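Lecture notes, unit on protein representations.

Consider one protein chain, 561 amino acids long.
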Amino acid sequence: MKTPHRLLTTFACLSLLPAGLPHLSAQQPAAPPATTPPPLLPSAAPKTTPADFQAKIIKDASPLPNGGQLQMSYASVVDKILPSVVTIHSSAPIKTPEIDQIPPQLRPFFYRFFGAPDGFGGMNEDDEPSLNPRGKRGQPQRPQQLPEDESHQQRGVGSGMIISADGYILTNNHVIADAKKIEVDVDTDGSSHTYTAEVVGADPLTDVALIKINATGLKTATIGDSSKLRVGDIVLAAGAPMELSRSVTQGIVSALGRSNEGIVGRGNGQSRVKGYEDFIQTDASINPGNSGGPLVDAMGRVVGINTAILSRSGMNAGIGFAIPINMALNIVEDLLDDGAVQRGFLGVQITDLDATLSERLGIKEHGGAVVMMVGAGSPAEKAGIQLEDVIVSINGQRVDNSSRLRLIVSSAKPGTQIPIELMRAGKRITVNATLEALPEEALSEVGGGSLKPRPGTGGAQQQKENVGELVTGVTVQTLTAALRERHDVPANVSGVIVTKVDPESRAAAMGVEEGDVISHVNRKAVANAAEARTLAKGSDKTVLLRVWRKGDTMLLMIGNN
């Protein structure tokens, strides 16, 4: 009998609990004489501008040699990169969960380990906390907060790379996230020195972080050009897997442009914010502890930051992911300014142009991003972008799918004017849009961001001929003057209004909400509920809806069964 397998996407950062993990020990040869560590800087170093910072970085974008004899050793490449690779130790207080989140049968053990919740006294004979006279029942209780000492810290180990001689280090955000203390081990001429680091800035949406130690004269990595990578290029991964510092593995570039893997982001559940992914995939061995370390090409130039692995066991399975170095350095420039990242905003919702949508829209070509919504007052609306437009190129870069469009727009600065090439009614046209700053609410992965349409109310007085089920789980009503006024629908918007949505229906999962005004069904305008239902029933598999929602217009494709 076959049993299902689960693939786990794991950050390649080693996290240790207070007790630590079992470790290997062996007799080591006598260490060489200690050398003088790099001199310390004053505690208050002057702020570095992005231009000055770029001048400090060593770059080499020359092409890799093609052909030639098989290389039998990469020792010279390792000698070039390894002095700039560091091991990062982070520690953060252990977070205690809410009591209500813990199964009742496990609470006695939890109370013994973490202590009784606030408002309770000692433990009774049933291993349950007894209520203090001043305690109040019926209120959510939290366990006592653990003291922030060494025995109550969660420790993690990751890697990083020195990118400037005065102590700037590039790593992953998840290596240093929530850390109260960050220590960096730097190997100099055979001896190791430990420095306390401070966070310059971090971006959870790309998993890039920049930290700094107070040291000078450090050996730096040479930065390559990740845009010149090709599938099949040889790469090496360096770092501290399982706390084994200065380790190197070798493989090839397995794929480029991996996105929609759900690896990076911010928050959880309904508050999850989708990150920006454009990963290099490699079979070079990456394991817990490698996070933040460099991925270098056959000439020892950094082309990526080792970030995560795809595995059933949590250990290397030949599928690793690295952030392209070009993408990381763009983020670093913003982090140096004020510790935050500014991203461009176009104001559209998009989806991939697949075979089903191509057939529904009557488009023969594949590839590109279909505009499914245009935000009211957005740069896209001002530029003249419309629903059903297929964006094929933006700012001179080809758009193969919606993820690619999102990456290109987000990497541009607010205020940038960019040309957008799109297909409309079988013709290619070009429009120009001036990007704005990406608002926080536009990052939401679930739902419609800040758009909150009023819920429909229906009513017993509704006439049956003007009310009906459009698709499974969606009830619509002809848009009357009273409904128009109640829902603030402008006079130039016509169609049917959604008065009820079954939260368990496929339509709800695809984004249909109460209060939506459906103006077109399968690309044909509708004036009342009867027309809308007739058009929807004429579709065997899917129904394409054009929806107006509080000033925004969008396309939704719903399964019809």
